[in-house]
C-alpha cells in the first residue's frame, strides 16, 4: 500500500496527482470514479491542469461507479448528472467515452448492470478506481455486508446512507431506496485502487479499513487485496493531532 498523507490544504492536489499519474501511465486510462464531497476538489484541480495543458485527457475513458434507481437523467441529483457537471464537462470528455448505468426505468436495472460489466470487460478492465468510503464502510453503493465477489447489482440503500444523503434530497423520505453499483468483484479487479479519505468524521472508518479485519461487514477493508492500493488521506482522517 502507498499512503499519500496530505495536509487538509494539499488534499485536492494529492487526489489530482493520483488521477494525473494514471493518465500519464496510460493516456487511454479507464477511470472508475466515485462522486461525492471527497473527490470533488481533486476533480477541479485536474480540470485546471488540463486547461493549462499539463494533463491530456483526450483519450481517457470513464466508468460510472453507482447510480440511484428511478431517477431521471435530467434530475440534478442523479449521480450521472453530478459526474457530468463536476468531471466530464469541465474536462470535455464526450458521452461516447463514458460507460454509465441507464436505470431511470426500474425494468432496465438488471440489463444495465450486465451492460456495465460487459463494457468494463470490453475496455480491457479498469486502470484506476478512485473511491471514497462511506461512514459505514461502503464503497460505491456496496453496502455492508458486501463480499469480495459481490457482482454489479441493484442494492437497497443502508439506513446510514439514507441519512447521509438526505441533505441532497430534501429529507430522508425523499431519498431513493435502491441504487445500482459496480460490484466489489469488478472494483477489486482494477489495476489500481485509490481510496480518498478526508476529515475527522472518517477517522474511525479509515482505521477499520486499514487496520481492522478484512471483512464483508466493512467492504472498504477488502481494498487491501487490491493489486495496487493508494490511500490519499489527510491528517484529520489519519488521526494526526
Ligand atoms: C458515490 C460513492 C460513495 C461515496 C461515499 C463517500 O459515488 O461512491 O461511496 O464515495 O459515500 O462520500 P463523500 O465523499 O461525500 O463523503
Architecture overview:
With 241 residues, this protein is α/β, with parallel strands linked by helices. The chain has a single domain (2-236), classed as 3-Layer(aba) Sandwich (Rossmann fold). 36% of the residues lie in helices and 17% in strands. The chain is built from eight helices and ten strands. The strands form two sheets. The protein has a seven-stranded parallel β-sheet with strand order 1-10-9-6-2-3-5. A three-stranded antiparallel β-sheet has the order 4-8-7, covered by helices on one side. Helix 7 (203-211) links the parallel strand 9 (192-197) and strand 10. Helix 1 (11-25) packs across helix 2 and helix 2 (37-51) packs parallel to helix 3 (79-91). The model has no long low-confidence stretch (mean pLDDT 96). Bound molecules: fructose -6-phosphate.
List the helices and strands and how they pair.
Blueprint: E1 2-6, H1 11-25, E2 30-33, H2 37-51, E3 61-64, E4 66-68, H3 79-91, E5 98-99, H4 109-122, E6 128-131, E7 153-156, H5 159-169, E8 178-181, H6 184-188, E9 192-197, H7 203-211, E10 229-234, H8 235-238
Parallel strand pairs: 1-10, 2-3, 2-6, 3-5, 6-9, 9-10
Antiparallel strand pairs: 4-8, 7-8
Helix pairs in contact: 1-2, 2-3
This protein binds fructose -6-phosphate.
Fructose -6-phosphate binds at residues 34-38, 65-66, 79, 132-134, 138-140.
